[in-house]
Specification:
Layout lengths: L18 E7 L11 E8 L8 E4 L13 E6 L2 E6 L2 H12 L4 E3 L1 H4 L5 H7 L3 H7 L3 E4 L10 H12 L5 H6 L4 H11 L9 H7 L3 E5 L2 E4 H18 L1 H6 L19 H9 L3 E3 L5 E3 L3 H7 L10 H4 L8 E5 L1 H7 L8 H18 L3 E5 L5 H14 L13 E3 L9 E4 L2 E5 L7 E2 L5 E3 L6 E3 L28 E6 L12 E6 L2 E10 L7 E2 L1 H14 L6 H5 L14 H16 L5 E2 H7 L3 H14 L2 E6 L4 E5 L7 E5 L6 E3 L1
Parallel strand pairs: 2-4, 3-6, 3-7, 7-8, 12-13, 14-17
Antiparallel strand pairs: 1-2, 1-6, 4-5, 8-9, 10-11, 15-16, 18-19, 20-21, 22-25, 22-27, 23-24, 25-26, 27-28
C-alpha cells in the first residue's frame, strides 16, 4: 500500500493552455477486486491520434472524498497514493475490466487546487470531450437501494426499442417493475450534473455504464425520447400505473417526465449542434438559452453555472483571462507589453466581428456574484430580439444561500460578504423541482411568463422598444456599521429605463398547489359591486391570456371553466375554491383537464392583484401592498418593483 501522497509536481503542465494529462491504467482486463495502479502522462491538446476515452461522472460533494480510498500512481518506479471518491474508484475498475486503459477524468487529470490551471484547462473541455475516442458515462454501482440497472437497460433494448411490442408495453398491462426501473434510472444524481450537458453533446459516441451493465447513448436517448413523447402527450402510462397496488395507486406516478433532467438532457442535446458532412459541427443555441433551460442541473462550483456551458453555445467560446493567454504565448518575447495587449485586443476583436462567437473569460478567482452579473450583461447586450431584459425575469442561478457568509476581497477591501442582487433570480423559483424523495419531478412554481429565448408571448414594452443606451451596471460595498446585517456587504445595481404603470392596491391569497382560491372570485365581485361593471375576463387572468402554446386562448375556455366550477359545486356544495389537481387526476373531460393544466401552470404560488387603476392580474407570491407595477424598455412583461 502506497503511503506517500502523489504530487502534481511530478507531472507539471508546462503550458496548461495547450497540454493535458492522461491517466494510463495498468493491467487491462484485471478483475474488479484488484487495486488500481496507473501513471499520469502529458499530451499536447492538439495533434496526434487520440486513443483515450473521457469519463463523465458525478462528483458528489467534495467532503465525500475518503482519503483511505485511493489509487496508486507510479512515478520513477515508486507508487504514490492519490485519494479519489469511492464512486470514481469503482468506475476506473469497470473501465479496466473492459480493457480501457487510457482515460481522461477531471478529478485526476486537472489539479483541482490550482486555480490558474483550471482557468486554462476549462477552455479545453470542448477539445477534450470532442476528440476523445468515446465518452463513458458512469451512473454508479448497480447495487443497494438504487434502481435495477440490468433490468432497466434490458427493458430499454428489448422492450421500449422493440417497436412491434411498444403499444402493448404502454396501453395494455404495462410491466410495472420494468417501467419503474426506467423511472428510477432517470432520477439518478448523474443526470442533474451541469457539466454532463457539454460532455454528452460533444461526444463522438457515448456509452452509459451502470456497474458492469452498459448501453449506448443512442439507444438510451431514443428510448427516453419515446417515453417522454407518449407520456407527456397522453399520460397513459401514469393512468395505467395508478391501478398498480404495489405502488400505492399514486396519480401522476411518473410526474412531469418532460421536466426531468434526464429528459431535458436527451431532448436538448439533440438540437445543440448541426453536424455537417465534413465532420464539423455548428452550434445552434445561445448561452442565454442554455443557462435558462438547464436550471435543474447543478454543480459543486457556482461559477460553473455559466462556465460549464460555454463550449457548446453558438455565441461564446471559453477563454482564460487576458494575462494567462499572454503568459501562454510566451509574452517575454514582446519587448513592449502594451503593444502585446493592443495586439491581443485587435485579434480578438477582429475575430468577433467576423463570427457570431465571442470570447468569454473563464476566471475562478473572480467573485461568484461578478461572474453572474457578467452573464446578465452579456445576455442583455447580445440578445437576438427586443426582449433584452427578459433574463431578469428568469430563474437560473443556484440558491443564493450558497453564497451567504462567504467572504471575498475587493480591491483593498478585505473580507466583504458576497451577495446576489434581487434581479438575479434563484432557481428555487423554477417551475419544477425534484420531490423530497427524488423519485419524480413535480411543480413547485408557476411557469415563467417570459418563456425561454427566443420565445416572446407578450410585448409589454412594444415590439420594437429595446433596452436604451442608459443601461449600466454598478457595484460597491455597503458601509453602515450600525446595521450589521448589511454592513460590509457587496451590492450590485443595474440601471435601465422604463416607467411606472400602476400600483398594487389589494392582493388575494397565493394559489396553493394550483388551487383557485375562493377569495379571488370575491375580489372580482367586490369590484363589480363598486363600479357596476361586469367582469367576464376572470378566465383570461387564470390562463394569462394565452394557451399552452403561447397563442391566443381557445374561445371555448370560458365554457370549460364554468363546467369545472359546476362539477366542483356538485362535489363540494357550492365551495368556490377550485382544485385544478383533482380535476387533472380524476376528471373525465379531456378538454377540461387540459384547461386545468394550463391554469395550474399559470397560478401556482401566484397571487391575484387589483391595482389602483382597477387592473387585475397575476403577480409573484412575494408581492406586497403598495408595490409598483412597472414597464421596463426591453422586457416583454410588466415587473413588480419596490
Amino acid at each position: 500500500m502506497a503511503k506517500d501522497q502523489y504530487s502534481y509536481d511530478f507531472c507539471r503542465l508546462r503550458n496548461p493552455a495547450k497540454q493535458l494529462r492522461i491517466l494510463k491504467i495498468n493491467g487491462g482486463g484485471i478483475a474488479i477486486e484488484h487495486p488500481i495502479e496507473c501513471e499520469l502522462v502529458q499530451r499536447e491538446s492538439k495533434g496526434g491520434r487520440n486513443e483515450y476515452v473521457a469519463l463523465s461522472w458525478c462528483w458528489g460533494s467534495r467532503d465525500q472524498i475518503d482519503k483511505e480510498t485511493s489509487i496508486r500512481i507510479t512515478y520513477n518506479n515508486k507508487n504514490y497514493a492519490f485519494p479519489v471518491p469511492e464512486t470514481l474508484l469503482s468506475a476506473l475498475k469497470v473501465l479496466r475490466l473492459f480493457e480501457i486503459t487510457e482515460v481522461w477524468v477531471d478529478a485526476i487529470c486537472i489539479d483541482q487546487q490550482n486555480v490558474d490551471e483550471k482557468n486554462n484547462q476549462v477552455p479545453l473541455m470542448s477539445m477534450i470531450y470532442g476528440e476523445a475516442k468515446s465518452v463513458y458515462i458512469w451512473l454508479g454501482e448497480d447495487e443497494g437501494d438504487g434502481p435495477d440497472g440490468k433490468m432497466a437497460f434490458n427493458f430499454i433494448k428489448k422492450g421500449i426499442l422493440n417497436l412491434q411490442s411498444f403499444d402493448h408495453l404502454v396501453k395494455d398491462t404495462p410491466p410495472k417493475d420494468e417501467w419503474n426501473s426506467v423511472k428510477q434510472l432517470m432520477t439518478r444524481d448523474y443526470f442533474s450534473r451541469r457539466w454532463i450537458v457539454q460532455e454528452v453533446a460533444l461526444a463522438k459516441q457515448a456509452v452509459l455504464l451502470y456497474g458492469e451493465n452498459q448501453i449506448t447513448w443512442l439507444d438510451f436517448a431514443d428510448a427516453i425520447s419515446l417515453f417522454n413523447s407518449v407520456e407527456t402527450r397522453t399520460r397513459i402510462l401514469s393512468e395505467n400505473m395508478k391501478s398498480v397496488r404495489d405502488f400505492g395507486h399514486v396519480p401522476e406516478f411518473f410526474g412531469d417526465v418532460e421536466a426531468l433532467p434526464a429528459t431535458r438532457l436527451v431532448e436538448v442535446t439533440n438540437n445543440i449542434f448541426r453536424r455537417h458532412s465534413d465532420g464539423k459541427r455548428e452550434a445552434l443555441l445561445s448561452l442565454e438559452f442554455l443557462v435558462s433551460t438547464f436550471t435543474a442541473f447543478r454543480s459543486s462550483e457556482a461559477r460553473d453555472t455559466i462556465y460549464a456551458l460555454l463550449a457548446i453555445a453558438r455565441d461564446t467560446s471559453p477563454q482564460t483571462s487576458m494575462h494567462k493567454v499572454l503568459d501562454a504565448a510566451k509574452m517575454e518575447n514582446f519587448k513592449d507589453m502594451r503593444h502585446a495587449y493592443r495586439l491581443f485586443k485587435f485579434v480578438v476583436g477582429h475575430l468577433e466581428e467576423r463570427t457570431a462567437t465571442r470570447a468569454y473569460r473563464v476566471d475562478y478567482n473572480r467573485p461568484t456574484s461578478d461572474v453572474f452579473v457578467d452573464f446578465v450583461d452579456f445576455a442583455i447586450r447580445h440578445s437576438d430580439g427586443p426582449n433584452d431584459l427578459d433574463i431578469l425575469c428568469r430563474p437560473w442561478v443556484p440558491d443564493p444561500d450558497d453564497l451567504r457568509d462567504k467572504k471575498i476581497d475587493i480591491g483593498n477591501k478585505k473580507g466583504c460578504y458576497d451577495t446576489l442582487p434581487s434581479w438575479i433570480r434563484s432557481s428555487s423559483h423554477a417551475a419544477y423541482g425534484l420531490e423530497i424523495l427524488g423519485s419524480k419531478m413535480a411543480r413547485q412554481n408557476a411557469d415563467v411568463l417570459v418563456g425561454v429565448p427566443p420565445q416572446r408571448h407578450y410585448a409589454a414594452a412594444g415590439t420594437t422598444r429595446r433596452v436604451t443606451k442608459e443601461l449600466r451596471f454598478e457595484d460597491g460595498i455597503i458601509n453602515e456599521p450600525d446595521n450589521p446585517e448589511i454592513h460590509e456587504t457587496r451590492y450590485h445595481s443595474v440601471f435601465v429605463e422604463g416607467f411606472k404603470l400602476d400600483r398594487v392596491k389589494k392582493l388575494g391569497p397565493a394559489s396553493q398547489k394550483g388551487v383557485i382560491p375562493k377569495e379571488w372570485k370575491s375580489m372580482l365581485r367586490a369590484y363589480q359591486n363598486e363600479t357596476f361593471k361586469n367582469t367576464q375576463d376572470f378566465w383570461r387572468i387564470l390562463v394569462a391570456d394565452r394557451n399552452a402554446s403561447g397563442n391566443n386562448p381557445g374561445r371555448f375556455f370560458p365554457r370549460l371553466l364554468e363546467f369545472a366550477y359546476d362539477q366542483q359545486a356538485t362535489r363540494a356544495a357550492r365551495n368556490e375554491t377550485l382544485d385544478t389537481s383533482h380535476i387533472i387526476n380524476y376528471g373525465t373531460c379531456e378538454p377540461v383537464k387540459d384547461l386545468m393544466k394550463r391554469i395550474k401552470s399559470m397560478i401556482y404560488n401566484r397571487k391575484l392583484v387589483r391595482t389602483q387603476n382597477d387592473r387585475f392580474g397575476l403577480v409573484p407570491d412575494a408581492t406586497e401592498d403598495g408595490d409598483f407595477i412597472c414597464i421596463l424598455y426591453g422586457s416583454s412583461v410588466p415587473v413588480v418593483m419596490r
